[in-house]
Amino acid sequence: MVTAANLGFPRIGAKRELKHAIESFWREETSQTELQRSASDLRAQNWKVQQDAGIDAIPSNDFSLYDQVLDTTLMLGAVPARFGTGADLSTYFAMARGTKDAPAMEMTKWFDTNYHYIVPEFTEGMTLQLASTKPLDEFLEAKALGIETRPVLVGPVTWLALGKAKTPGFDPLTLLPQVIAAYGDLLRQLAGAGASWVQIDEPILARDLSEAEVDALKSTYGALSDAGPKIMLTSYFDALRDNLALAAALPVAGLHVDLVRAPDQLDDVLAAIGDKHLSLGLIDGRNVWRADLTACLAIAERAVAAIGADRVQIAPSCSMLHVPVDLDHETGLDAELRGWLAFAQQKLTEIVAVTRALNGQKSDVAAAFAASDTAAATRRASPRIHAPAVKERAAGVTQADSRRATPFAKRILQQQAQLGLPDFPTTTIGSFPQTAEIRQARALHRKGELSDVEYDRFLKDRTRECVAWQEEAGLDVLVHGEFERNDMVEYFGEQLAGFAFTKNGWVQSYGTRCVKPPLIYGDVSRPKAMTVEWARFAQSLTPRPMKGMLTGPVTILQWSFVRDDQPRVQTCQQIALAIRDEVTDLEAAGIKVIQIDEPALREGLPLRHADWQDYLDWAVATFRLSASGVQDATQIHTHMCYSEFNDIMPAIAAMDADVISIETSRSDMELLKVFADFNYPNQIGPGVWDIHSPRVPAQGEMETLLRKAAEVIDPAKLWVNPDCGLKTRQWDEVRRSTAYLVGAARVLREKRAVAAE
Ligand code: GLN
Ligand code: ZN
Fold this sequence. Notes:
Blueprint: E1 3-4, H1 17-26, H2 32-53, E2 58-60, H3 68-75, H4 89-97, E3 107-109, E4 116-118, E5 121-122, H5 134-144, E6 149-154, H6 156-162, E7 164-165, H7 176-192, E8 197-201, H8 211-224, E9 230-234, H9 244-249, E10 254-258, H10 266-272, E11 277-283, H11 293-307, E12 312-316, H12 335-338, H13 344-358, H14 366-381, H15 388-395, H16 408-419, H17 436-446, H18 452-473, H19 490-493, E13 497-500, E14 507-510, E15 513-515, E16 519-525, H20 532-540, E17 547-551, H21 553-558, H22 568-588, E18 593-597, H23 612-627, E19 635-640, H24 649-654, E20 659-662, H25 670-678, E21 683-686, H26 699-712, H27 731-756
Parallel strand pairs: 1-12, 2-6, 5-7, 6-8, 8-9, 9-10, 10-11, 11-12, 17-18, 18-19, 19-20, 20-21
Antiparallel strand pairs: 3-4, 13-16, 14-15
Helix pairs in contact: 1-2, 7-8, 11-13, 17-18, 22-23, 26-27
The chain binds glutamine and zinc ion (ZN).
């Protein structure tokens, strides 16, 4: 018999119940007991849903009050010293969020997803042991409800590989024996409690592994294979490739592979699998599309033919953490579009349908297969998805379209002549404080309690004030403030064809923060100009240059659920053409400086180095396609938030933006060295004010940062700006910081003038 498995269910609840429960606990409106009650209610509900759907291997310990990596850190007693020695809930939340005295642990993206985990910290001499029994507790909790679950654990090697050594030169892998011992204890306890299987996630198997990591995996599973329950070892987000032989040789009872991202690996996996169980990741755990069940079945049948039904399991490609909970709550979408989608709840029935079809119950699931066939057929043919004019235009794109007419060294002269800016020109990144007043007006407008006319007047007033204030503050290149924008991707998606938005399609981003990514379902085009009216209005308020402000194609792609019926590059190119039209329309409206933000460029990098260049090539080409339709005299800016630029400098330079602003203040300009060493040819604005903190830096600090920058970068190429947009700051902080920023630029300007005399 083929079995049906799930690797993880979204824990936030269909209506973000978990978020609300945790946040009210943080506000001290509810007790810890009440929070734990809400949490166990959610767990029970999720187990029940999966049981009712017919899932055989139901996960437990996939639940978390904040993050599964942080859970593991606490479970192993790896609490950094600044949080004391406790292992209770307040320690847990302190690690995630920081306290007055102890800064929070770092947070970063989980592989190539938009989920953020809390980065473990490793120090020389730390001792690790099994310090909590969360996986056991949740297994027993489910058991008490009559549901046998398969506990999910973050793999020991992945946990170590994702952490950071805080002692210089310390190798986290030296902690492995202690981690193995703790996992051994845990597995024995789970076996004692009746668990027959556990799921251990080692997604690092989809990355390039060091020799030390390979050895670590061997010794880990060598030691743990007999400790207790059978182990289903999972990898996901990419193919196993050269790690397949290693994974297949580990002494575990089962292997899970991602066949959505990497369908081509099946034959190799079947050849290598030996006598292990094989979990086929056939249903997309990362995206919202309804599965093509017939196609899934055909793949699964090959596996069954090769290794026999009893060793095959049908599963999502990865944990469903990355998709919204339930399509049934989605009231905003029309029936046709809904018919093309599946959220976590619907994906459970897809898993079960394929499983049952394999088990000789095809007639029982005929309706599910018929509906899936219909959805696949209508998607293939729908005029809502396929716009011949868009496809034709994209097919006609040439290399020349992705190139400015003239090299930077020449066009910058025309830009300087047109803009007449001083040395060390000052600007900001785009947004100004999104105050409670602005959020409230937006909410009222959405509810229909503030008319379009009133809302428009309100936004214009805020913009007018903001522009006047920037002039007074002495900034050189102004922005309109982005008051009309809710979010830098949603704002554009709402105006582009091919995008849809859900009402409840929430996905956990980190902790209690959830996002509702737009859904790109069809060919993308721009029915009409999106930002030109605002830009024209803002420019009319001032003689100084007003920056047009756009989100770049790669970032729009990266932060959306993307269609799966064509390669990402094609979708990105369509977005780029829409942005390109916006850029040239802005230029035609008299806007001389246009910023195209690409904060998500780096996070789109594939997990394997071998795939980087291909991605960077098309990401850069699509950015350039969006930016290259303008005259030489029009200045293109781009902006990126904190990124490790080290290994992608050639691509950053290849973007050929006239000016790039980057986040550097937290790294004390260290990052700039990379640009200096590379001899970055164009202009650059290293952030001199860390906008993530309410702290207002002194003018002297900014001067010091700028002087450091001027030591490594030609001062004629330097801009002066904050690290990022100011939307999360208070006006009071913005006023003081901007005054210092302008002051610092003036000081450097005078020094340079004196030096030149
Ligand atoms: N222009 C955007 C802003 O200022 C950029 C945001 C970002 O970099 N994430 O808000
Ligand atoms: Zn930024």
